[in-house]
């Protein structure tokens, strides 16, 4: 007996990655500038800087003369940036979505140049989505009444939202599924622009800051909510002048904040289904002084302050829109689109089968530094644990694709704690798991002491 696919299967699906989530190549040479297969490349790139110089946005690109760099596909291999931490590949997400579509041809992988503005990427998305929808409606396995379903990670959700609300995409949209999208920005972006101003700083973070100050895409992630602490429980919104004082670009900051102002005034989006990362230590507010930003892990809550946490990059209340249902998942920002639960949720929305949290699932928070020196132990902290004895921690060398350690976690100041030496320069994944949710993971870059 033939089994008909569920109604959601008949849609044309577009999958969008987050910032730094697309492979970029130099058009003239075909050289891969971002998204290389060898994770050891990131240690060299962030310390020498030669490989990253081509990623800086030029005046020509800001003026709209693009094409020097092309996005070819979504990440197939782990990537890393200091402060922003790791970016996991999208293989599992793409596989899950394709397996739940009416046909693999119903799914479009939309890579975009994440260095440039949300508006630029959304204009490209509008053309690609329209062509994909028409091709799918004419496909032998397609449907003439098919509509668009967008599945977007992080900044990809901002691109999708701009396409839907400002470029007329709402008329063809059935559902927008976002995974860790910073609808109201991230304090991490403001902190990154100010990182190291007037203070000694490891070379990789200096390289990132120099790159970030040229990127419209990074400025798009600036926080648009009341996050600047003036005095006790008195907060104001970040301004473009504030961003300029931190070393950012005044024009790029104003564009981003203007876009967020339009977002606040826009009508509700009933098609939105947001996966929101929770349980991780997350910058939520900041203080400004002397051209520097100091981030804090709390926001105002009535007459006091509260730690709302989030996915380590986006705090939980910034990752969805008012009136939209949210699926809360304890996971880090760079790993959320790789997690089994987020993929299962996206597929359940596609097929219109609601999905609840796994049996036995508990919230768990993982904290590790973004970088460590080889020869120094890497600290690992795990908190929000109901059953400490059930927590398992693992360390993987991504270059060797090998598990290299299972640190023993011991109680320390209300959390669980371990230290593990990383054997050499390169990229490592640290995982912690307890209960029914998949492991919370984070990428760490190990660098030589003189780097």
Automatic annotation (TrEMBL):
<dbReference type="InterPro" id="IPR003386">
    <property type="entry name" value="LACT/PDAT_acylTrfase"/>
</dbReference>
<dbReference type="Pfam" id="PF02450">
    <property type="entry name" value="LCAT"/>
</dbReference>
<protein>
    <recommendedName>
        <fullName>Lecithin:cholesterol acyltransferase</fullName>
    </recommendedName>
</protein>
<dbReference type="InterPro" id="IPR029058">
    <property type="entry name" value="AB_hydrolase_fold"/>
</dbReference>
